[in-house]
Amino acid sequence: MAPVKVGDKLPSVDLFEDSPANKVNICDLTAGKKVVLFAVPGAFTPGCSKTHLPGYVQNADKMKADGVGEIVCVSVNDPYVMAAWGAQHNTKGKIRMLADPSGNFIKALDLGTNLPPLGGFRSKRFSMVIEDSKVKDLNVEPDGTGLSCSLADKLKYKK
């Protein structure tokens, strides 16, 4: 299996928003629109909470004004953790906080990493621009966890 690359269609995987009862299929969510998706190693972790998520919250209105239909944050966490983390950072109406509790989406993208201090399997830190369920731009942090190319202000989402 090779990591996802520009031009690939997203895998059809269900993620969860707010609770295990609220499934969100990532292909359905991204069909027919431009979506910015970023993934983090863990909710409530320092780099994710102090830099990564806040950058997207601060840039959400500009991104949406520039034609981005949805902004999605994904983490290998449970949906309740993602909902609480989103509430703490005022993401409502700006960023969809989607949980990948078993890592099925991250595994399908082949962008996972083993981080024992965070519980084992987690997502590498990355961002992507998706148009009609296809990857148009992909930025994977070189070390999988750093904060450089996947930040909101580095994303190439404009045509």
UniProtKB/TrEMBL annotation:
Q: Which GO terms describe its cellular component?
A: mitochondrion; peroxisome
Gene3D superfamilies given for it?
Glutaredoxin
User: Locate the Thioredoxin domain: which residues?
Assistant: 4-159
- Which keywords describe this protein according to UniProt? Antioxidant, Oxidoreductase, Peroxidase, Redox-active center
**Listed GO biological process terms:** cell redox homeostasis; cellular response to oxidative stress; hydrogen peroxide catabolic process
Instruction: Give the coiled coil ranges.
Output: none
The UniProt family comment states: Belongs to the peroxiredoxin family. Prx5 subfamily.
Q: What does this protein do?
A: Thiol-specific peroxidase that catalyzes the reduction of hydrogen peroxide and organic hydroperoxides to water and alcohols, respectively. Plays a role in cell protection against oxidative stress by detoxifying peroxides and as sensor of hydrogen peroxide-mediated signaling events.
Identification of the protein by name: Peroxiredoxin-5
What organism is recorded for this protein?
Papilio xuthus (Asian swallowtail butterfly)
